[in-house]
Design goal:
By secondary structure, the chain is mainly alpha-helical. The chain has 6 helices and no strands. Helix 1 runs antiparallel to helix 2, helix 3 runs antiparallel to helix 4 and helix 5 runs antiparallel to helix 6. The longest helix has 24 residues. Keywords: Membrane, Transmembrane, Transmembrane helix.
């Protein structure tokens, strides 16, 4: 039998500090267009929010309520359900990626599952996007046959869905 995944243990005060930092971080990403492109803001939001959530124990009601609030506000902004709230600057109206991410995180905290299981979601997607963007911009000009390989891989990816 496998040992259960350990959950980082934070005090309620530590959770409050982390929640405040997360809220401030989201505000900076939303409104600081000078220092962060939309692409960078989206990937940083995805990965660094995930990193912070890894340390919020879902067993604490306070942490679950905070995550529910983030999920609800995030979905309201994504789907523009309240016109007074701005949409995410790095997402489109009804963005499926943001919606799925928020629903998974909300469900995970609701179920009180170990958040560490979500680490691949938090880090693999943003990492792949950053590396893929760099590689598609830089590698084909250095290695001409790579354009053919990238086109084939793109075709396989489209065909697999």
């Amino acid at each position: 039998m496998m040992a259960p995944l350990s959950q980082p243990s934070l005090s309620p005060q530590g959770c409050l500090a982390l929640m405040a930092a997360e809220g401030l971080f989201l505000l900076v990403l939303q409104f600081d267009t000078k220092h962060f492109s939309d692409f960078a803001a989206r990937k940083m939001c995805h990965s660094l929010s995930g990193l912070m959530m890894l340390f919020l124990p879902p067993q604490y009601l306070l942490c679950r309520l905070y995550v529910y609030a983030v999920v609800i506000v995030g979905l309201v902004m994504t789907w523009q359900l309240v016109p007074a709230l701005p949409k995410w600057r790095f997402g489109d109206f009804g963005d499926i990626g943001i919606t799925v991410y928020l629903v998974i995180v909300g469900f995970w905290f609701y179920s009180e599952y170990p958040v560490a299981v979500l680490a691949p979601i938090f880090f693999a997607d943003p990492s792949g996007a950053v590396i893929g963007k760099w590689a598609s911009r830089n590698l084909p000009k250095y290695v001409p046959w790579l354009r053919i390989l990238l086109a084939l891989l793109k075709g396989l990816r489209v065909a697999s869905f």
